[in-house]
Amino acid sequence: QVQLVESGGGLVQPGGSLRLSCAPSKTIFFATTMGWYRQAPGNQRELVAEISSDIITYADSVKGRFTLSVDSAKNTEYLQMNSLKPEDTGVYYCNIRRSGGPYYDYWGQGIQVTVSS
Predict the structure, then answer these.
(1) Is the pLDDT of residue 102 over 90?
(2) What is the dihedral of CA 53, 26, 66, 60, to 10 degrees?
(3) Cis bond leading into 102, ω under 30°?
(4) Gyration radius of the chain's alpha carbons
(5) Identity of the highest mean pLDDT range in 24-28, 55-59, 71-75
């Protein structure tokens, strides 16, 4: 079973930056989509950013502030978060999945990001 290990979260002041990382416990082949989601207290999990077929999609709320990148050799994905706002607070989850056969859908355990002064 593959585990996704996230790191880089924490407490930061408004306007600050954080970089999240997500690495699998073993090599994953032929992923079709890699991305990040987040969930704030009382809210549903929402897409932050994902890459599929070399196209990156960002939530409108993070465009221009967050950058998704991937190191394909390491199957590792990153989320650079700049100009953080209190509304960015939540638990961030990484996701790696394949839509075709063999199908898989892996999630990280979640990492807390808190933006507060």
Answers:
(1) no
(2) 50
(3) yes
(4) 14
(5) 55-59
Six-digit token pair at 101?
């056969």
The confidence band for 53, taking pLDDT boundaries of 50, 70 and 90, is very high
Token pair belonging to 80: 């650079």
Which segments within 1-117 are labelled E, that is strand?
Answer: 4-7, 10-12, 18-24, 33-39, 46-52, 55-58, 66-71, 76-81, 90-98, 104-107, 111-115
Do the Cβ atoms of 7 and 18 come closer than 8 Å?
no
Residue 89: CA atoms inside 13 Å, Cβ hemisphere, count? 12
The β-bridge partners of 67 are 80
Q: If you ran DSSP here, which 8-state letter would residue 27 be given? A: -
